[in-house]
Design brief:
With 111 residues, the chain is an alpha+beta fold. The protein has one domain: Orthogonal Bundle (Arc Repressor Mutant, subunit A). The chain contains 4 helices and 2 strands, in the order H-H-H-E-E-H. Helix 1 packs across helix 4. The model has no long low-confidence stretch (mean pLDDT 90).
């Protein structure tokens, strides 16, 4: 169904924004961010999440370091300067969108 596909595309953008937000607060790893996203209703598997993390890393928005945690290799992601800039822009646009869509403050109406 087309509506499901469009909704999934919207949610993928929300997930990316959420990842950048948390990576700005502290280093994140895949398992922890999956748990965080699940608390907000985004149930992603590793096959969906890790390509998103790789894409953000390849775009220069996240950096990745590898560490051993409880005997297992673990990738930790942190936001980069480019990621911070992107997050600031996204927050500004999100605030405008929330104002218009959720609070019904359409600037074109003059309100």
């Amino acid at each position: 169904m087309i509506a499901d596909r469009v909704l999934r595309q919207l949610f993928t953008g929300f997930v990316r924004l959420h990842i950048l937000y948390h990576a700005d607060k502290e280093p994140i790893c895949g398992v922890e961010i999956m748990e965080e996203l699940a608390r907000h209703g985004y149930h992603l598997g590793p096959g969906t999440l890790y390509p998103i993390l790789r894409h953000l890393e390849e775009g220069g928005y996240l950096s990745c370091t590898t560490a051993v945690f409880r005997g297992k290799r673990r990738k930790n992601f942190r936001i980069t300067a480019s990621g911070k800039k992107l997050l600031r822009r996204a927050k500004k646009q999100l605030a405008e969108l929330v104002s218009e869509v959720l609070e019904d403050h359409d600037k074109r109406k003059g309100t």
